Amino acid sequence: MSLDTLKVTIERGPDAGSAQREFDVPAYDNQTVLDVVSWVQQNADPTLSYRFACRVGMCGSCAMMVNGAPRWTCRTHISKVSDGGSIAIGPLRNLPVIKDLAVDMDPFFDKWVAAEGVHHATLTRDDPIEALGVDVPEQSTADFGRECINCSICYAACDTVAGNTDYLGPAALQRAWNLLHDAKDDGRAAILDAVSGSGGCHNCHSMGSCTTYCPNELDPMSAIAGLKRETAKSFFKRGR
């Protein structure tokens, strides 16, 4: 292998780690991991399956494991992750593998629903739209969390999810925390009940991988800590 060539190892097959193939990929300046995967699919193995869409860090669909860490491959430059000209690429962990680098996102989104991560309307479509002041303190918390694009990087990074498949995971709990502070959401009781169950926020060990790896620099660990406080308050207020 020359300095102008990358030694790329890609996991193949329906199961993560079931098989690996190595490819020699031309190296060039400003090359991203997604560029490498695309080169392999277009020039070496057209059967390679993977996902991508926007290529500019807006959709999150190109997320993969790169040298053991979850990353957006379109925003990850080879120069930052290459280990002596070698790089290992695999599907996101903690999710079922459909084929090669493409994972099934259904369990991830199912947990959003389980965490009551859906809007609970306070009005009907027949009611007039109410103005929401910009000076509502709680609303700034809800607005910040909306930067989540559901890429599941935090879910793949979470060791609690890896050890407990019932755990709702950081993205779903972050979403629940956002809605808890949304002035236009009326689901507080339902949300607190949902996130305090056996797979809820109290399973979090506060290891912080979710916050460390979030590409949008969100802080799911703090959101989960907030849910722990609110569910505890709710528990004692109800006297049970």
What letter string, H or E per element, gives the SSE order? EEHEEHEEEHHHHHHHH
Instruction: List segments where confidence is low: pLDDT < 50 over at least 5 consecutive residues.
Output: none
Rg over CA atoms: 20 Å
Spatial sequence of strands, sheet with the most strands:
2-1-5-3-4
Sheet with most strands: 5 strands, mixed
The end-to-end distance, rounded to whole angstroms, is 66 Å
Total DSSP E strands: 7
Specify the helix fraction band: 25-40%
Q: What is the averaged pLDDT score?
A: 91
- Indicate the proportion of strand residues: 5-15%
> How would you classify the helix and strand content by structural class?
alpha+beta
- The backbone outline, from C-alpha atoms, is elongated
Characterize the quaternary organization of these chains: single chain
Q: How many separate helices?
A: 10
Summarize the structure.
The chain is α+β, with helices and mostly antiparallel strands and about 240 residues long. The protein is built from ten helices and seven strands.
